[in-house]
Recover the amino acids of this structure.
């Protein structure tokens, strides 16, 4: 691609993004340029640096998978420490969260799953309920303690006959957000398919009709408005991962 | 000694120390600048720091730099400490160290009476600053681990007073290292022979 074509594609891609994300995207594209200036070299070397950082991020994925202890639990906190109001965060502004009709909703299942029959919200709500009060840690640096209730994800995966030897679980969302996690984390006892937040039906801002609560990973690996779950062996990345956030992002 | 055949004087700083010093310098600067960019995503200070003090371009880019340079910093730092402890160099250079010695040499330095004739011998102020920055760097690494792995290394996070506090400790350690750098770089420019010694060894 020529430089002109590259810049055209970048602008086209930026135009398809929500404004805050568009700013980030363009800032990152500019970041490459300023980085090249800092190093006193041309953009080719900037691209070399990016490739080296990609390799380091992949290395960090492997280190974190190795460090991950499937039996080590995230700390639970007393109810008095719950943050109210709990912060809102998404790749769009407050108020832009998707509206899902609970009546017509079904959770789709794809990939290496024995029984792919879609689940209604009523069926999901009838699953055994667990509650956790844990700390949600955002990649931006803030954290907040919240109370989430729902079904243990490993229980749900067992019920539908998901292949526990598959490598990835991918979650796709009503707002077109997507992320994927490793199977070891999916089977962790605190990984929860969440339908309630602070004893209320999960509010729209916090991910109605369901989110995946993963207290052993950063907040962006806790997708909201989940509408489909895929189990498979092909790496599927995710929304922020495409921009360069580390895939494993374990805590 | 003058009766022995002449042989070149030993280097003020052995090669291992010089290489490790400059690797550490580069890694520390990358850690500070990328760390400040990460800080700006949710500032501890009343306002974000200027972009000129950061690298990475945005939060995600800065984290990539931070989590790449951390390996260089940690491995090089471990090498430096093992080398310094096993050769006895750290002990010889930094001890004895007492508040009285530091204050005496600080007074001498401020009144312009502190000599630098023998660069291989550190005065009290140098010993305090070099031992101090090693200690503060250890705190930076520990609080960094507490932020990076609050579940897997939960004991370290608890030691730091939980996640939010670990972030404050990490920032304070960075600020202390920046203060050290301001003094350290100024002194090396005031006594350029010391800068030359850290490059060529003598």
């Amino acid at each position: 691609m020529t430089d002109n074509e590259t810049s055209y594609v970048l602008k086209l891609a930026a135009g398809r993004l929500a404004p805050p994300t568009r700013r980030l995207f363009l800032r990152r594209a500019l970041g490459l340029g300023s980085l090249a200036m800092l190093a006193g070299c041309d953009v080719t070397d900037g691209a070399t640096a990016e490739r080296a950082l990609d390799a380091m991020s992949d290395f960090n994925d492997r280190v974190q998978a190795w460090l991950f202890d499937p039996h080590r639990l995230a700390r639970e906190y007393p109810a008095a420490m719950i943050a109210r109001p709990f912060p809102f965060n998404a790749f769009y502004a407050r108020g832009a969260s998707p509206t899902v009709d609970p009546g017509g909703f079904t959770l789709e299942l794809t990939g290496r799953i024995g029984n792919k029959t879609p689940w209604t919200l009523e069926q999901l709500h009838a699953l055994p309920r667990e509650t956790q009060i844990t700390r949600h840690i955002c990649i931006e640096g803030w954290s907040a303690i919240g109370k989430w209730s729902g079904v243990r994800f490993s229980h749900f995966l067992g019920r539908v006959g998901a292949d526990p030897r598959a490598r990835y679980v991918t979650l796709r969302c009503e707002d077109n957000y997507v992320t994927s996690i490793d199977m070891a984390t999916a089977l962790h006892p605190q990984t929860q398919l969440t339908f309630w937040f602070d004893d209320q039906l999960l509010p729209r801002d916090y991910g109605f009709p369901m989110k995946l609560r993963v207290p052993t990973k950063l907040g962006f690996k806790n997708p909201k408005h989940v509408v489909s779950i895929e189990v498979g062996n092909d790496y599927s990345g995710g929304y922020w991962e495409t921009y360069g956030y580390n895939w494993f992002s374990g805590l | 000694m003058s009766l022995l055949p002449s042989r070149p004087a030993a280097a003020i700083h052995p090669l291992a120390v010089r290489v490790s010093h400059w690797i550490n310098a580069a890694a520390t600067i990358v850690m500070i600048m990328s760390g400040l960019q990460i800080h700006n995503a949710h500032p501890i200070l009343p306002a974000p720091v200027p972009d000129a003090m950061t690298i990475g371009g945005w939060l995600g880019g800065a984290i990539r730099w931070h989590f790449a340079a951390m390996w260089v910093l940690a491995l090089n730092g471990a090498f430096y400490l093992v080398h310094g402890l096993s050769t006895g160099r750290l002990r010889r250079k930094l001890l004895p160290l007492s508040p009285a010695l530091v204050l005496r040499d600080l007074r001498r330095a401020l009144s312009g009476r502190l000599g630098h004739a023998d660069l291989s011998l550190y005065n009290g102020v140098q010993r305090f600053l070099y031992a101090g920055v090693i200690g503060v760097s250890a705190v930076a690494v520990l609080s960094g681990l507490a932020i990076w792995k609050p579940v897997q290394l939960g004991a370290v996070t608890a030691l730091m007073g939980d996640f939010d506090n670990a972030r404050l400790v990490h920032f304070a350690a960075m600020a202390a290292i920046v203060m050290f750098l301001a003094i350290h770089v100024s002194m090396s420019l005031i006594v350029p022979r010391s800068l030359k010694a850290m490059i060529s060894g003598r």
